Amino acid sequence: MILLWQKNNPTKPKRKNNPGKIVRGDGPEAADRSPGPGAITVVAVLLMLAQACPLFGAEVSGKFSSLFQSRENKDGDRESVLDNYLSLDADRILHPAVSMHAYGKYGHDFDANFSDTSLYYGYLEYRTHEGRADIKLGRFPLSTHRFLTVDGMNVSLKPDGPVGVAVFGGASKYLDLDPDRFKRLFSTSEGTIYGGRLFLQGVEGTRAYAGYSREGSGDTVYQELFSGGAGRDFQAILLGKELKISADGSADYNPDRAAMEKMSARLFTSFDKKLRVLLEADLYDVQNEFPEGRELVLSILSDGRERRTFYTVFYDLNPNVAIYQSSVFTSLKMPDGGWQTGTILKGGVSGNFIEPMGLDLDLGIYRFESFIADATGISSRIRWRPHNKWILEGGLEAVSIDTPSHHDQTATTISGEVGYRPKPTLKAALFVEQSDNPEFRSDFRTGMRLDYDFSFPAGRNFPAGEGR
Length: 468
Hints:
This protein has helices spanning 36-52, 286-289, 354-357, and strands at residues 21-24, 55-73, 78-93, 98-109, 114-127, 133-143, 147-157, 163-173, 175-176, 185-188, 192-200, 206-217, 220-238, 241-254, 259-271, 275-285, 305-316, 321-333, 339-353, 359-370, 374-387, 390-402, 409-423, 426-436, 443-458. It has a domain at 22-190 and 460-468. It is globular and about 60 Å long. The longest helix has 17 residues, at 36-52. By secondary structure, the chain is mainly β.
């Protein structure tokens, strides 16, 4: 979707109750992205352990992705970036229950002439049968009140009984919040974080947890949260048809602010395997959460608080064609204490003809209304596989925009991609995109992508009966 409300602003957005700073990927502060002593130590320890000790029939797997993008806007500025991502997983090293996991990136901006190296995680994991005990040591991803990486330890125990426990602690680190080089943001943090969680286990169709986390530096508290959540699945027969319902809710309480930091409720319903309805309502700080898939990115204009409600309805007309309608209702709290609203209404049809024709498509129309602009648009996407090794994709979007200063403007985006998969583990693609938005930056983008999945055995095999 042409998100005219995702306007790039050269200033760094403020972030409340957050220990770090936001650094845009194309800013001068992003030029020095070396892993740092902590990250180098993590990698060195993992490599030395892997080399010094025998591999117990280890299985190594991973994925390498390389993405080159060149972007030129209408005023002549150019940006050419190469990003390389590598994930690595090695099971049964040092001990049958020990594994190693790592994920990192090396990027280079050719026009600005700087490189960007990031180790997102690299840790050893000890996991017993069925995860009764799970210990992670190193730099690992952590999801508490927000997603980040931690240099430290995470211990999860699932004893006999209905309650499990998890505790964690370490130095909080930055995370690349968006894999798109041209709109990514970095979160940097120099404090420590610790906490724990109690969770329900062994109760089919029921979920519940209660937790605590504290992030800070010395006597300074960046964020302290008490959290909790619960969910349950239901299944019944209605009018002779199968009905499934899943309901979940969660909340994070900030004692320093004496207020709810985040609240979320979700309800999913499936009837007769044809009708699917998703309802969700959220209250959060958009500058602190960076939730995936969010719309109406106007946090630069607000104090960061957002109330968001959306629903999506899908109905399968037949095994190949479905119709859908979705709506998003958002309210942003302004610095003066008032709330401004925005609405997105979208409907369309999607077709899945992969089996008979190698084709799937989506056609939609949407309406956007807010205090900064109104827009009506159409969007289309098509993906065709004429041969089992070739994939062709294309997209077209056109939007009519009305703002207080300009009327009847038109923004368009046309994109295309050619992919080639000579074997299941390797894919290469070339893509091009032309965007023309009179309100913001218009540009022409080209690039190529390479994805390679690999796996291979290493070390000695177990005798029969050994190992996990």
